[in-house]
Amino acid sequence: LPSSRCSHLSSGINAEYGVLHDCLKRNSPNQCPHFMTVDGGEEVRIIFRQYASLFFVLGVSPDDNVMAHFAFIHNLVETLNSYFSNVCELDLMHNVDRAHMILDEIVVNGFITES
Predict the structure, then answer these.
(1) If you average pLDDT over residues 13-27, what whole number do you get?
(2) 12 and 6 in contact (C-beta within 8 Å)?
(3) Does the structure show a pLDDT above 60 at 70?
């Protein structure tokens, strides 16, 4: 594909990398950015949660219920724990297809269907 058609992808990847970098290098939970402006001026709320060695970062609409997304992350971790019996990052790396299958059962078309 021509670079002009993919330029929005590289800027999106750079934005994702920047958010992940800011969240992972933080010294306290307050240092993770709560809002971010993406290309086109749209504002996105950043939700960050760490469970043991797993990090979850969500980019959601500013109007969404934050606690519902924290509950979603908790439900996802509980489901992964029951499937992999105490999930760790290696489980997800070596079984990415199974992790996607579980996530696809919980999230359909960008909407949380199981909580």
Answers:
(1) 68
(2) no
(3) yes
Write down the pTM of the prediction: 0.71
- Tell me the pairing of strands 107-108 and 111-112: antiparallel
User: DSSP for 4-62?
Assistant: HHHHHHHHHHHHHHHHHHHHHT-SSGGGS-SEEEPTTS-EEEEEEEEETTEEEEEEE-T
Rounded CA separation 7/86 (Å): 40
> Residues 97, 108, 65, CA angle at the centre, nearest 5°?
115
- Number of residues assigned to the chain: 115
- 34-72 burial string, b = 16+ CB within 10 Å, else e? eebeeeeeeebbbbbbeeeebebbbebeeeeeeeebeeb
